[in-house]
Amino acid sequence: MAVVPASSPSMPSPPTETGTAPQPPAAAPETPVHRLGEQVFEVVSDIGGLAQFSALTFSWMFRRAPRWAVLVPNFYAIGVSSVPVVAITGTFIGMVLAVQTFSQFSAMGLATRLGSVINVSLLKELGPVLAATMLAGRVGSSMAAELGTMRVTEQIDALSALGTNPIYYLVVPRFLACFVMIPLLTLLADFMGVIGGAVVCTKLLGVDSYHYWLHSRDYVEGLDIFAGIFKVLFFGAAIALIACHRGFHSRAGAEGVGRAATEAFVYSFIAILALDFVIGYLWNRVYDMLFPHSTGFL
Which range of residues forms the domain containing residue 183? Predict the structure, then answer.
């Protein structure tokens, strides 16, 4: 009697009664709910990855001080190279503020109060936010593109193979450069904005220069300058961490590097606005608690 060989896993499935092999179950159609869930999971994963990346950066920053040979080029690229852009941006911020507010204040007979309004707005809000936004586009995108190229060309993997931690060698110097230089650049933007607004008001719009500077001195305090610099410390840290994180996790190819640079600017801009709202709200609450009887500009 003939022996029927046992079927092996590699052999095709026997036909069914209808003469056709069984088909795998069809995948469920993707719905808008599925796509929304995927996007939510991606956002949560990115936030978790950024938090882990930030924790590693802070741990290496306090574990070992970076070398000056690595720090100095980053200070130059982020600080010195950004001086012309920041100076021009700050100057035009002050000039635009002067032009836009002059007509309303002159109609109320308060043209001489423009100095206080323009300078406080520059020092506390517009100067820090717009300077950080400009630096996010120039510095953040550059860092993300540079680190993304190093990821694609496997230079980061080569550093790990040589026994050098990439976060310590690449991220910590860039973070310290942003954290130190962006507040200094913001002070430059504030100074140029104050000068630009004063020139427009006193030379072009006919505001009396004595009363312009008098009201500026009476209403602009050192605490206003500190409020703007305090915000920028967080802005600079956010720009550095987000840009380096996007660069480290860049996808392969030129498209991946370009997308990493774009995401670095977009996410940094969103973080700047969110931090500005949170810090501004908390700052005003604390200020009202400490100085409940402070007077306004008018």
Answer: 72-288
Phi, psi of 10 (to 5 degrees): -80, -10
Which tens digit of pLDDT belongs to each residue from 69-119? Answer: 888 888 998 888 899 999 999 999 999 988 888 888 877 877 778 888 888
d(C-alpha 129, C-alpha 16), whole Å: 70
17 is a domain residue: no
In a domain, 2, yes or no: no
d(CA 227, CA 280): 9
d(CA 253, CA 135): 26
Contact 123, 227 (CB under 8 A): yes
Does residue 6 belong to any structural domain of this protein?
no
**Assessment of whether the complete model's pTM goes beyond 0.85:** no
- Domain count of the chain? 1
126 within a domain of the structure (yes/no): yes
pLDDT digits (tens, 9 = 90+) for 51-64: 888 898 888 888 88
**Do the beta carbons of residue 93 and residue 228 sit within 8 Å?**
no
Nearest CA-CA partner of 37 in 47, 27, 45: 45
